[in-house]
Amino acid sequence: MKKFLLPIAIVALLSSFMIVSFTEVVNAIKSGDATEVAKYFDNTVEITLPEKSNSYSKHQAELVLRDFFNTNGVKNFEVIHKSENVGSQFCIGNLTTNNGIFRTTIYMKQNGNKEVIQELRFEK
Question: What does CATH list as the number for 2-123?
């Protein structure tokens, strides 16, 4: 019985950290706060925008995201689908902006003791 409780406790603990950081990322996107989103970037982040797609360093990715948010004027973000696996999670949502709605995908993965964003996609 004890053999089963420890792995379950570890998974539950890791999941609770993942849920908190994921919620913080969603809230930061909802408010158009690139600096807050960037706190969760991995060392390199794949960002896909309607006009460009590339892999960026943490700092470059923050600048690209800030420019995207400023150009489009974020109004709201609504999660429409979310999925978790041990050590990773992703969601699909709609980012409502002054320039229309962007289908948004966020992919996060466990990296050591921290959950990081590895990919962000904004598609018109």
Answer: 3.10.450.50
